[in-house]
Amino acid sequence: MDCATYIEKYLSAHVDGELSAAELREAEEHLAGCVNCRARFAEERAVKALLRERAAMRKTPAIVRGSILAALDAVDAAGASKSGTRGSDRSAGADRAPWYSIRRARMWAPVAIAAAAVFVFVILHGVGGPPPAQAIPPFDVAIQHYDTFAQRFEPNVKSTLPADLSDAYIDHNLPGFLWNFRPVGYKLMGGRIDRLADGTSVAYTFYRGDMGTILCTYMKSHGLQPPDGEMQEVGIHHYYEYKGYSICLSYPPRGGFICILVSKRPMKEFIEDIATCES
Ligand SMILES: [Zn+2]
């Protein structure tokens, strides 16, 4: 299978768990050997999770919600008109294909368009501008705050509900996807939105559990130069042992941001915890 086939015909149904056993095997085989499609899969899953949360809370900024609803309407209309004509021009033996293409289109297009709407919104409202040369490297920003927050975390987003944090981050031009570490015993303590020296926004999401704390930092990816060596790549995540901390670096769907998770957990357990939360 090539990447185009995977992305057009399989990706969306794969994320939704709708592939047949044979299709799933082919899809997994492709992902096993293709880092790009693995990243697309993770991105698609994150966007769908975000959209589910949005739909549940109905608190999406109006401009984004409008784009998503318009996209869904347009695709529904296209699907309906295709369904209406497909009986007449269908040749024998091609039964499966039209149904598949319509199902894929209906599943894939809204998410693609909605994702574009969400992140165009983020980009249009982004603060932008090149960072000054002396900006503190992202990993150091993250670990400095990790130490401070482990002593005392003062959220400045009023709610501790994931959906409200997500909204607050999006309102500040930051990614809205939140980690859920509950499956491995960490409670979401809340979120903080601050500004870095270069004027761009940064979001800190803090988690506490019996095994310690985790800090998630979202910031613009500009100027990031991860340290050389000591890197382990697991799926779409890059793990670093950095100055005595376990760090997971990843890229939220589009938008030019990085997600830095910092913990004091031994690296092996940290990687396992994250894998558990993503499964
Ligand atoms: Zn591929």
Q: Can you offer a commentary on this structure?
A:
- The longest helix has 29 residues, at 96-124.
- This protein is an alpha+beta fold.
- A hairpin with a 5-residue loop joins strand 1 and strand 2 (201-209).
- The protein is globular.
- The model is unreliable at 82-113 and 120-134 (pLDDT under 50).
- Helix content is 49%, strand content 18%.
- The chain binds zinc ion.
- Zinc ion binds at residues 3, 6, 30, 34, 36-37.
Quick synopsis:
Helix content is 49%, strand content 18%. By secondary structure, the chain is α+β, with helices and mostly antiparallel strands. Bound molecules: zinc ion.
Summed up, the helix count is 8
The helix fraction, in percent, is: 40-55%
Described by the principal axes of the CA atoms, the overall outline is: globular
Give the bound compounds. zinc ion
Rg over CA atoms = 21 Å
The total domain count is 2
End-to-end C-alpha gap:
24 Å
DSSP, total strands: 7
Give the CATH H-level superfamily of the largest domain.
MucB/RseB, C-terminal domain
Draw up the topology in text.
Layout: H1 3-15, H2 21-32, H3 35-57, H4 62-85, H5 96-124, H6 138-151, H7 162-171, E1 186-195, E2 201-209, E3 212-220, E4 231-234, E5 237-242, E6 245-250, E7 257-263, H8 267-278
Antiparallel strand pairs: 1-2, 2-3, 3-7, 4-5, 5-6, 6-7
This protein binds zinc ion (ZN).
